[in-house]
Amino acid sequence: MINHVSLGTNRYAESVDFYQRALAPLRMTLQRDTGAEASFGTPSQWSFYLYAVAAQEHVTERGMHLTFDAASRADVAAVHAAAMAASATDVFTPRERPGIGPTYFGAMFLDLDGHRIEVLTHVP
What we know:
- The chain is built from 2 helices and 8 strands; from the N terminus they run βαββββαβββ.
- With 124 residues, it is α/β, with parallel strands linked by helices.
- The chain has a 4-stranded mixed beta sheet, with helices on one face. The protein has a 4-stranded mixed beta sheet with strand order 5-8-7-6, covered by helices on one side.
- Helix 1 packs antiparallel against helix 2.
- The mean pLDDT is 97.
């Protein structure tokens, strides 16, 4: 079981703002921002971190993506909409994907650094 995950970003301040907006529908909020590390989650569970990385350093890798669970299809759509409004790049819009599973409903986008971010629910 994974407790938390962190991503490097070449655009730290912009990415902190991006994730504040994109994760709000999941009720994940900024818990701490040191200027070099930002922690997101709930007061009792910090589960997502951003770290400032020098502009010349590579922060994404082929095939890697991060997925957030959503409580409902409406939350999936709200995260996707918030991410798009915050300058994400769409990979796929909220939809069912029966080839993945009969209850899958999700969306995927690229954040400001090009990290592939997915949000999904299995709630009908």
